[in-house]
Protein 1
Amino acid sequence: MSQSAPVMAKAATKYQPYPAVDLPDRQWPSRQIETAPIWCSVDLRDGNQALVDPMGQDRKARMFALLKAMKFREIEIGFPSASQTDFDFVRWCIEEGGVPDEMSLQVLVQCRPELITRTFESLEGAQRPIVHFYNSTSELQRRVVFGKDRAGIRQIAVDAAKMIAEMADKAGGGFRFEYSPESFTGTELDFSLEICNAVAEVIRPTLENRLIFNLPATVEMSTPNIHADQIEWMSRNLDNRDAIILSLHPHNDRGTAVAATELGLLAGADRVEGTLFGNGERTGNVDLVTLALNMFTQGVDPGLDVSDINGIKEVYEYCNQLAIPERHPYVGELVYTAFSGSHQDAINKGLKAAKVANSPLWEVPYLPIDPKDVGRSYEAIIRINSQSGKGGIAYVLQADYGLNLPRSLQVEFREDIQRITDDEGRELPVKRIYDRFVERYVDQPGARFEYVDHITRTEGQKTQRIVEATMLDRGQEVQIVGRGTGAIDGFMDAITRHLGTDLSVADYSEHSLQRGSNASAISYMELEHDGGRVFGAGIDQNATTSSLRAIVSAVNRFVDN
Ligand SMILES: CC(=O)SCCNC(=O)CCNC(=O)[C@H](O)C(C)(C)COP(=O)(O)OP(=O)(O)OC[C@H]1O[C@@H](n2cnc3c(N)ncnc32)[C@H](O)[C@@H]1OP(=O)(O)O
Ligand SMILES: CC(C)C(=O)C(=O)O
């Protein structure tokens, strides 16, 4: 066994495991998410405060318009006591933002009197805004940031709650309240409960005006199951639970914010705060788009409109000046694309089966969601490189050019494409695959034979047809004649005589095709000759002629030039 690197070997002395929650009768593992939570976007606050260049009015307004269009009913629009930009934006939302009746604007404030006063100034005239106040409660922050014991920290929250309740009364009511024991994940559960209950005692929430307790994973510190235990424990133990909206605010430090949120919802949370595609401090807030689409793909209406994911991405990238990686769930450039052969084959078959089944149920291997449901197309589902197989090549030729290659031709042509992708070591665009097919099977530049024309006539017995064809053989015009039951049969007879070798049709298929501006037909012909089997293809406006061209094409592929 190899020795750990010295830094890694220090793990046990430098870091400690997160303690488990004593909750043997936990209920969340056997529950399912059946309804959407209340969603609150914090893009304009937590997302914004993490940006290299925070948004100005223009970018904020654009983000706000998107969030409204996505049907968020709660949006944290800023920290109005922190900066003039944030203050002005709150005023703009109230005065010009076109806030729908059913929407509450939310603002964040620390438990500091001067900041609370300024916050209320910013909210004048807002309809049922949410005043979100917070203070840090974790053991570490109590010790190193605030230098206070539990009672001191609780007093900060209680004093702020009192001031906020009084200011709200003075302003004539109509406010909603949210309290966050910030750094909840670093706080002992009994203290989180104590401080929340103390705040509730001041605010006195009712069923009509419920108090939001937001339990933030300010830093994600544990596995999602422990997060769920914490939420279930709080949900069970909070006083007057019916008058409380229990909210999650997960960050993604361990990369498991989505999982932690989903388990937190199973554990009894009613509400989720997060951001689009997970922008936010450090590794980000929880990604609300992914959460919503995870619900959607489990058959639950998420209550958010995420049906134009590219449009959402565009606004996200403009406002945050951040790019979304190619593999990001549901939205990344490559998430609906398969390069590998077996995936392509299964997707191709799945899409065909879905067409036949004509059922509303989405069942396509490797595609957990129908790309069309989020405004993406099937165009990029399959792309071809050296990992691709015949199914994928057949799919792109079908999807983009309407070619239905017979299975054995798919096998043969795939080998050709594989050689090219191996040589070039990169993706092959569909146009090049199509051009290669046409060059190899249809146009055949430099080939020995070229079809020119033919006529058929009957002679004597009406069941026999005589085919007289004109061909170029190494550039020289030749006439060939044969007999048969039909044009194909007669032409086969004629070309067999001309070559002086045995030939027969092993397989034949044909379908119509739109090539250029003309409707035409394509024929695929597999011929058996002394040395084996070979495919040819022919395209012509006349279906019979396309099949004779396909015979010539197949012959060209085994005769010497
Ligand atoms: C996890 C989160 O995302 S919380 C949200 C964090 N967001 C932000 O901080 C963005 C906006 N903030 C700001 O612009 C500034 O921090 C301001 C304007 C709010 C305050 O600025 P300043 O007072 O100049 O400085 P600063 O933020 O360093 O203040 C820290 C002080 O506030 C105290 N404090 C911090 N948070 C809180 C709180 N929630 N409630 C009460 N006091 C708090 C600290 O203990 C510290 O006190 P001290 O000065 O006695 O040591
Ligand atoms: C203010 C709180 C909710 C916060 O942003 C956090 O804890 O991450």
Protein 2
Amino acid sequence: MTGSDQPDRAVPDEVHTSDGGAQEPSLGEMQLAERSSLRRVEGLSTELADITEVEQRQLRLERVVLVGVWTEGTAAQAETSMAELAALAETAGSTVLEALIQRRDRPDASTYIGSGKAAELREVVMATGADTVICDGELSPAQLTSLEKIVQVKVVDRTALILDIFAQHATSREGKAQVSLAQMEYMLPRLRGWGESMSRQAGGRAGSNGGVGLRGPGETKIETDRRRIRSRMAKLRREIAHMKNARDVKRHRRHTTGVPSVAIVGYTNAGKSSILNALTGAGVLVQNALFATLDPTTRRTVLDDGREAVLTDTVGFVRHLPTQLVEAFRSTLEEVAGADLLMHVVDGSDEFPLEQIRAVNEVIADVLRGAGADAPPELLVVNKIDAADPVELTRLRGVLDGAHFVSAHTGEGIAELRAHLTERLPGPGVRVDVLVPYSRGDLVARIHAEGTVDSERHSAEGTAVGAEVPRALAAALAPYTMGGAQGG
Ligand SMILES: Nc1nc2c(ncn2[C@@H]2O[C@H](COP(=O)(O)OP(=O)(O)OP(=O)(O)O)[C@@H](O)[C@H]2O)c(=O)[nH]1
Ligand SMILES: [Mg+2]
């Protein structure tokens, strides 16, 4: 049993698996099929018909060679980074033919890998018949252009690759708008570079690029494109702000009705959606692919004590998430700021779980700073313990104090996790009448922040408060309970 034997109201029964996800959820399968059928469809609106050359380049990553510059860290870390780039490339739908790592103090200012290595790369491209080179970093527009000149196939960087995946995966209106905005922001300074190499390469590409090739990216064309992109970006920003308002209202309503909320965050592919499914029986898309989830999915569940809670599955994070994306997804990620609890899921079978934790924490801190919000309490959940190395797990148990160790697949630890959530989430609360000494002003502050105060009086001995507070806080307040004042 996974422990998720409470009925879930949001989904039909047949989706509810008791074996923790051995069966592929049907909703997920549908989404999966839909996704692959959409893979090669250019997603931008017709308004952008004139400038989709950039998009089309990004969507045609078919046979790729990866190249990385290894500037710091161990060889194992450099290899992990390349393996991740390969996974990203495959997620975007391409076949990885070859990967090269170059050891340098810093990326070459003009060609990223240096001209000697670039010539070597050209050889590899010719030998393998690759049509794209993907660099493991963010390249300047000039670097992209110079490297393209040498290798003579299109060159794409990690940022463009991630943006491409996001563009393929976004399903909600808000998600799509956010990705478009991020892509345009990325594109804007690169238009000239893309344009120049496009005109050189236009002959090699079929149909869809004909218009561009014929016209040529003259200075005027670029200027017009820029202006169009800018005004489209402004429009998108307005739309996104509007959608965010609607979501804020919904969230606020949830808050005022007192339904506690959990935001599930974590590195991409850590198993966030699997845990949501294991906890609630929801049929959220689970895929061994990066960024399977892009739109926050909220599911209701019934806690062990019969209360309701909502869990929100969020977009996964990755090292060096393009800044344009952090920016664009900020409003979505603000779900994080509004949650009562952050459930941070870590892949315990990953080679460097602590680095994943760090990368995720950086993005969260960034988002919260932007939202001007305090971090909600965090619960660390180490997933995939069925697949993890036992020695590594022992080490993790040592360093990750208070973490829960679970397997969404076998269901191990899931019941305990549910019990912990029940315990930890603010509930309708416990009635307390306490006299808190002035030395514990922190507790009074917490009562105000976490509970509902209905009486407060200052006396010589301290602050007398009558309030309804979450169970955990009630426990902390137990020593200050006023004699005989119980029961209300
Ligand atoms: N062995 C093992 N694999 C798991 C477990 N939980 C999830 N997985 C696998 O890990 C992969 C990613 O799972 P998801 O739940 O889609 O991960 P996610 O964090 O939602 O990923 P994104 O939405 O892509 O960021 C899938 O192939 C799952 O089957 C687990 O407990 N054990
Ligand atoms: Mg997911």
